[in-house]
Amino acid sequence: MLIGKKTCQLAIDTFGEDSQEKMAVEEMGELLAALNHYRRGKCTIEDVRTEIADVLICTEQLACIYGYDDVARQADSKMIRLEERIRHYKETETEL
């Protein structure tokens, strides 16, 4: 994870879980819009990077709300699975 549990928990304690969940949904929508706009040449890559950063921060806060360590374990597990899929893909690609 990127920014840390302490700052995320402070944001949740300050603004409340409901507020931070709503903010996460809003930021995810803004990222979706930025990605679509970037594909059509209507915004810059920096705009997309900004929205990605906002979503990363919000997802860290969601992890705090729903169990930071459990979410981190899930992310680790999914990363291992992705690595295995990549390895399998590369192995089958070279067989062709």
Identify the notable features of this structure and list them briefly:
96 residues, mainly alpha, 88% helix
In short:
The protein is mainly alpha-helical and 96 residues long. It has four helices and no strands.
In terms of topology, how is this protein built?
Blueprint: H1 5-15, H2 17-39, H3 45-66, H4 68-95
Helix pairs in contact: 1-2, 1-3, 2-3, 3-4
Distance between the termini: 37 Å
Shape: flat
Low-confidence stretches: none
Structural class of the helix and strand makeup? mainly alpha
Order of helices and strands: HHHH
Provide mean pLDDT, rounded: 94
Total strands = 0
Q: Fraction of residues in helices?
A: over 70%
Mind describing the biggest β-sheet?
A: none
Percent of residues in β-strands: under 5%
**How many alpha or pi helices?**
4
Whole-angstrom Rg: 17 Å
Please, could you describe this protein's structure?
- Helix content is 88%, strand content 0%.
- The protein contains four helices and no strands.
- The protein starts with a helix and ends with a helix.
- The relative contact order is 0.13.
